[in-house]
Amino acid sequence: MGILFVMCIGILIGNRFFSHKYKKVNENLQLICTILLIFSMGVTLGRRENFLQELSMLGWHSFIFFLIPSLFSLILVFGLTYHFIEKRNKEKGEK
């Protein structure tokens, strides 16, 4: 809940107080913060004693959590795209 609150404050400040001339500065600041976040997460994970064993055990769970939603998303997007493109092609052909 706190993350959403902070994001809403950031959106409000960005929308009301930042002009477009600071867009490039904001992009660079976001990039630097993202790099620092990923680096600190890597350091935290690398300090674990059994990290490689934990990683191998979590690997299959992570793969399943990736595979199932990705497949369903792919099927859904393919189905909807096919449906709407077919509908549009029929409308163009009738006119």
Key words describing this protein structure:
single chain; 95 residues; mainly alpha; 87% helix
Structure explained in plain terms:
This protein is an all-alpha fold. 87% of the residues lie in helices and 0% in strands. It is built from 3 helices and no strands. The model has no long low-confidence stretch (mean pLDDT 86).
Helix content: over 70%
The helix/strand class is mainly alpha
Distance between the termini: 52 Å
User: What form results from the Cα inertia axes?
Assistant: flat
Mean pLDDT: 86
Q: What order do the SSEs take from the amino end to the carboxyl end, as H and E?
A: HHH
Number of strands: 0
Number of H- or I-type helical stretches: 3
Estimated radius of gyration: 22 Å
Low-confidence stretches: none
Largest sheet composition: none
Strand-residue proportion: under 5%
Q: TL;DR of this structure?
A:
This protein has 95 residues and is mostly helical. Helix content is 87%, strand content 0%. It is built from 3 helices and no strands.
Present the secondary structure layout.
Layout: H1 2-16, H2 23-46, H3 51-94
